[in-house]
Specification:
single chain; alpha/beta; five-stranded parallel β-sheet; 13 helices; about 45% helix; binds 5-amino-5-deoxy-1-O-phosphono-D-mannitol; carbohydrate derivative binding; cytoplasm; Glutamine--fructose-6-phosphate aminotransferase [isomerizing]; glutamine amidotransferase
Length: about 350
């Protein structure tokens, strides 16, 4: 039930701090360290390469997951769209392990890919919100999201839950391989939950950004680099699916290779700046679009902020920024859709779970 909330989407955005805390609880051992089923750890440790397969928002979570597996656990990882994978299976490594990410566990494209993987005799893990879903039953192992039912068609809390679970798996693998890194993930995720709460307290600011930038927009761009780029793809999907504004996420450095031709007087460009090593680069990209009269808005993070930034996120571990930088983008989409009179929870032409290929 959505209780006092006008829409499920708003309720689900604001549940995210609780979901992160629930995930910490569910994946913690007696000593407070993150943990997962040892048989899953051993399956991962036998793999020479991971293949993440998913659709839509779950695919976007997979793009972040790849960074975790490679940076924390040093396992090469590929991310594939389920609908492409089925008809164009890539050259696989000697010992692949497949990870299916799906909120519903019922997405037909992902299921079709799982069927192919099983035919080839490979092992699979499903990361899903729905126990006993098709993908959960048919994969060898399941990791649950513990996000509670997600009703709005636009996925919000499942995305952050997926990223949190992927971070936990990668960190557990890191420790199992004896890779030293100064990170206490349970503690860092607790900081994320608090940061999310602070961001939710600023929702009026995101409503203002939505009305300033998007009330009459025909199109909108989201730009970022590295992890911020992955979040920009998700921000653009969110905006297009519920507000029907044509929205695209671009890697900042790619603008000059084509997309900058689309910038006109007043084109809204929302930039994320949460990554220290590319902070100056993304700000350079913002200057390039502003020089073409774009209407820009920078969302940065404490410690990396500069004057003129529209919103400064509380600081979290730099690998975990997608968990918080997506929240303003979710709110901005929500309010943009609301101001434009769209049916936020049930956008046209879309279903919550896509059970046809
Ligand atoms: O249930 P799944 O995670 O497998 O669903 C995948 C996509 O259909 C889903 O994420 C879709 O893109 C959402 N409407 C995005 O908000």
């Amino acid at each position: 039930e959505k209780g006092t909330y006008p829409h499920y989407m708003l309720k689900e955005i604001e549940e995210q701090p609780f979901v992160i805390r629930k995930i910490i609880q569910q994946y913690q051992d007696e000593d407070g360290n993150v943990t997962i089923d040892p048989s899953i750890v051993s399956e991962f440790n036998q793999a020479d390469r991971l293949y993440i397969v998913a659709a839509g928002t779950s695919y976007h979570a997979g793009l972040v997951g790849k960074q975790y597996f490679e940076k924390l656990a040093q396992i090469p990882t590929e991310v594939h769209l389920a609908s492409e994978f089925v008809y164009n299976i890539p050259l696989l490594s000697k010992k692949p392990l497949f990870i299916f990410i799906s909120q519903s566990g019922e997405t037909a494209d992902s299921r079709a890919a799982l069927v192919e993987v099983k035919k080839l005799g490979y092992k699979s893990v499903t990361i899903t919100n729905v126990p006993d879903s098709t993908l959960s039953r048919e994969a060898d192992y399941t990791l649950l999201l513990h996000a509670g039912p997600e009703i709005a068609v636009a996925s919000t809390k499942a995305y952050t839950a997926q990223i949190a679970v992927l971070a936990i798996v990668a960190d557990v693998l890191r420790k199992s391989k004896g890779i030293e890194k100064d990170i206490d993930l349970a503690h860092e995720l607790a900081i994320v939950a608090n940061a999310m709460e602070e961001i939710c307290d600023s929702k009026d600011e995101f409503e203002t950004i939505a009305s300033d930038y998007l009330s009459f927009a025909r199109n909108a761009f989201f730009i970022g680099r590295t992890l911020d780029y992955a979040v920009c793809l998700e921000g653009a999907l969110k905006l297009k699916e519920i507000s029907y504004i044509q929205a695209e996420g671009f890697a900042g450095g790619e603008l000059k290779h084509g997309p900058i031709a689309l910038i006109e007087d007043g084109t809204p460009v929302i930039a994320l700046a949460t990554q220290e090593n590319v902070n100056l680069n993304i700000r350079g990209n913002v200057k390039e679009v502003v020089a073409r009269d774009a209407y820009s808005c920078i969302i940065s993070m404490e410690g990396l902020e500069m004057s003129g930034d529209r919103f400064i996120l509380p600081a979290v571990h730099e690998l975990l920024t997608p968990l918080i930088s997506v929240v303003p983008l979710q709110y901005i989409s929500y309010y943009a859709a609301l101001h434009r009179g769209c049916d936020v929870d049930k956008p046209r032409n879309l279903a919550k779970s896509v059970t046809v290929e």
